[in-house]
Amino acid sequence: MLFNSLEFFIFLPVVFALYWLIGNRRIKQQNLLIALASYVFYGWWDWRFLFLILFSSLVDYTVGLKLNHEERPARRKLLLWISICVNLGFLGFFKYYNFFIESLVDSFTFFGARLSLNTLDIILPVGISFYTFQTLSYTIDVYNKKLRPTSDFLAFMAFVSFFPQLVAGPIERATNLLPQFYKKREFVYANAVDGMRQVLWGMFKKVVIADNCATYANMIFNNSEDYSGSTLLIGSFFFAFQIYGDFSGYSDIAIGISRLFGFNLKRNFAFPYFSRDIAEFWRRWHISLSTWFRDYLYIPLGGSRGGTKMKVRNTFIIFIVSGFWHGANWTFIVWGALNAIYFLPLLLLNKNRVNTNLVAEGKYLPTIREVFQMATTFFITLIAWIFFRADNVSQAFIYVKDMFTTSLFTTPEIFPLTILGLVALFIFIEWLGRSGEYAIEKVDFMRRPVRWSFYMFLIILSFLFTGEQQEFIYFQF
Amino acid sequence: MKKFLKHITYGFFFFVLINLLISLKYEYPAYKAIKEKKHKNYLKWNNIYENKNTYNLIILGSSRSYFGFNPKVIDSSLNLNSFNMGTSAQDIAESYHSLVEILNHQNPKYIVLETYLDLSDDRHDYYQIFSNASFFKSSLNKFELITSGYGSDGVANYFVPLMKFNNYIKQDIITIFSNTPQKAPETDWYKGFLKDTVIINKKKIAALSPVPNYDSTSFNKERFNNYFNKISELTKSKEIKLIVLRTPYPPTRLKLDNNTDEESFYKNYFKDIKDVEYFDLNHYKPDIFKYRDEDFSDYHHANLTGANKISLQLSDIIKNQLN
After folding, report:
1. Does the residue B215 lie in any domain?
2. Is the confidence metric ipTM above 0.85 for this complex?
3. pTM for the predicted model, two decimal places
4. Percent of chain A at pLDDT above 70?
């Protein structure tokens, strides 16, 4: 079920009404409703894959309980590996099997040998990368004794399948979300209003910004050989806003909906395109994934505690694995590696934590230096997005090569003024609201009629400039 | 909770109010036109309902069809009674449900279906679709068109004027800030055919874009196949001859690129289908029916001269190509 669909528009109020009618004294019943609603939400896409979530939940729940009673290190490790193998096994099979087979066959062919292995016609279960990482975080935290395992299977099921964030995150930590399923959830007016506002902003990002940008990004990327450098630049610009609007929009909707049910999810985006360097960008982009990799991969690998060599190695590992997490294609690996290369100079010069504050904090306008820094960071991420979006690595290289020709300085063949105007409006609102959790969080300073008119303005824009409905990009990851 | 629900309700009513105002702005002229018996779709459907079992040849398709097929020419050369049921932005699902409706009141010998990639894509002009469907007498047919023809998107567009009139509102906003002259109302109708004497100007020819292809449209093959099969089965069950035509484009536009997605798709699709005659009018007897840019009023609509050629081509097909 898509958030921007009629089905969801009916589904959400029904679940919301039932949830609060049950009342917060009956936590178990509320959890049961959340689990059932989440299964309906997911099964709407393909009910067969519900068994996968159920099985994954059962395995991690059981492993968690066993870990609680097991003190022998070898047995504990074995239990942890069972969970890792089951979860990553599913992920590996559904997401990476064909990629590995094709790569293996290609490498044999490259060395003149023949290998006859067939790929399979596998459907990628929506959101598998998200819930796999979420359940893994539970087992690892229990293993590391940072979290007491739950004996409440219903709460655990609801935690794994929690519908607002099931298919595209934010990837929640068990330490943050799971305890919320044991506690009484209160309906707080201010939180619910804030949630609705965040949903509205997320919808605007998705249907107005992302979907409209997608039309032009697809048009340009699908026929990149026909366009001038300036048009290719615009194509990558549109893709940058498509992916940002799409993914951060989804996160906003997920966080907002959760608040309606009395849950608090972690922030996933913090205005990444206002970053002054790539390190800051990665502290602001897909925060739940970056911190997941930091805590469960980078730090266990030794983090930056070792020498320079280890730092460089670990940085490359997490960026490449992060790229690979996005999809079974070399383009994502190159995208990850490219970001590692961007990050490296900052790491080696110990400047990766320079820009930790808000850009132009307390001011309306940034300094020239900040503008230059933001523009440079945006531009290098734009180049990296080309690899992320391209069908294959060679197309990406050709795209970049064709972009940097003299035609970069010609008038673009595609220049949709209305959409560019909407993107400009979006950047403007994001800039003004960059001190909040999301851009329109702090609109309470406006008088009620103005504030309501502003909400209505966003709603009208969302209906008026609805782009062609596209699935959320991150569903495929 | 009460306060929250109260505010949500206020917001909802405010939204409904805005939609009512939009509805009033855009539906009222249509309502007035119907009252004055000037509404084009109303007149078309009225003709179908009032002249029961009268027409031997009925044409379905988009504006390319109601600008292109002139019943006067067709009737005089074939000695038939034809009617043009082409409507603006008619989509293949709409053509099917229109046919279902028509066949409840008419018993034609021929059905002509005009086609091009845009007619079975994933972008729909819901205002035009629902305007056409609003004249269906069968509520079930109307319901099926909305629900199975367009799914939840169709339902949402049916109920939310802000969505349904989306393109028109945007156009109106743009018009406020531009000097684009308002188009004169279309009045010169004859049996569903709209006579247009405008000739495309050189400036417009220079700005033409290539004919639709897979990249420039969101052509949905599955949708086309699904609804075409329904149309074909329906005509077959009623022993009606189905003729499918790809109507012509200005020759300059045709030559703009080498992409033949549209031409090849239909050619290959209909190659193996028996009982259905398919012709591409861009290439049908070019020595006799040679098109010039001057036969068009814009990038794909024929003017009166073009329409006469198209109609003569159709007459020739029926006379000489069908048994």
Report:
1. yes
2. no
3. 0.86
4. 98
